[in-house]
Amino acid sequence: MPIHRRTLLIGSAQLGAAAGAAAMLGGLPTPASAAPKDLWQEFTDNPFDHPQVPNVAYAGYRTGESLPRREVRANVLKYGARNDGSADASAAINKAIADVGAKGGGAVLLPAGRYRIDHIIQLGHSNVTLRGEGSGRTTLHAPHSLEGIVGKNRDRYGSSTKSAWSWSGGLVWVCHRDRLHDLIDAIRHRRWPDEGWTGNKGDKDEVITTISADASRGAFSITVADGGKLRPAQRVLLQLSDDREHSLLKHMCGDIPGTAKYPWAKKTKLLSLTPFVWPVRIAKVNGDRITLAQPLPLAVRRDWKPRLTTMCPVVTDSGVEGLTIEMAKTERPKHLEDKGFNGLAFQCAWDCWADDVRVVNSDNGILLVSAKGITVQRTRISGRGQHHSYACRQQSHDNLFDDFIIDEFTTKPTPGSIHHGIDVEGLSCGNVWSRGQMAAGTFDTHRALPFGNVRTEITINNNGLHGGSDDAGPLYGARFTHWNIEVTNKRAGCVKIDDVAPYSATVGISKVTNSGQTDRPDFSGPLRSRLESYGDTSVTPANLYVAQRDLRHRRNG
Question: Structure pTM?
């Protein structure tokens, strides 16, 4: 699959401010005599607790490791699959995956050809790679939607028309086999399953130990009540509960003054997402002092009842690579009426990947739902219009979308349909979209208070709309950064965010206008955002994620 991108300029030199660019701090122009320090140099001086720029150097598979290349352990043709599209191959593919998973892992090969899949391909085992021979040679063809395979999936609020397949599920679904079985069973029996890290009923978390001392954002170490219950490499959930004053949610927004007057109690969908949960690996145990594998994205305060807990079963170290997922070409449904022609979904998956994957004619291209440390690289979304091309939902953290393409639609949008583009929502943080070409969509921040996410080195025809209902809360939490963005149609909405997002940084975007602006600030008063090098996309470093990653590696030796 050919991937076209703008030239990547990797460097750690200082960021040159464009002549005449407006530097913004606290929503007010900074006088020339008091110009702020160069933003990149500021970050290098304070890489773990910069007020506007999050540290995303730990995003992706195993906090940034190269993807593994596993030995082939099964060939689906030997399981009876046909690669001429003449018969359903899903049972043979799923059997090969299960056999390889039961034996400890390896790659399941789909030789070049076209495979019809009438049912969901379930990647429910750890250490398994589903591997085609390239997205231009191996195709999974899905003639049926998730609604046709599983049944109708209505939203949790009892709507008779809204389909939850509009934001969940995949015809290739990376999710632990027990969890996925329960999810499908619940949907078929008209029960709304909990999508998140603590299981279908939200009851799979047990406290391992409480955290006994406050810790600062960016810290690697925490103090726990009982370190004897933890071990290096253990995977845990760090959980924080909000209080009556909603001080945790306010902290996610940077504790700006406007948060004091915000009607938090009315944001019922947002409140249903708490507690905040952040999966993390334990790096070191020294008595009751615990070192984490990456820095804290938020402060930890004892008022929020901080604890480390277990979670539901997760899939780790599994991937999908070298194939196209092509759906039957249908008319794009109206908004929220999707049937579930969804390509690839990662749910409760941790340290997994997609590489050289193309999705064609989808309602949703690639969905991450309660996913952590996923690398999605060299991917492409094509065909008729989508609802979401890419999405991070339901407390998905530290995922990397690198080298991605959203093609121009092959058909005109259906009246009443909406394309969001690249979406992040639901208290998700630490996610990165890097080196992208977007012929359609927008930078969708879908309410429900995502924070600390980065979009960098992207060219976009900015024609989509953000989503999210009012009761889902703020569009933006603190520390969103848009860095080196070329907007070909000059539309500002959802890209130039200095007047919308608290404690944000908009750096090196092309000149835009407010025509068609749909995002509005949720908070009154100063936002303490930054606008730098406006109108100049030749900023250095050209790619914020790559520069942060390289800085991390240099300082770690």
Answer: 0.93
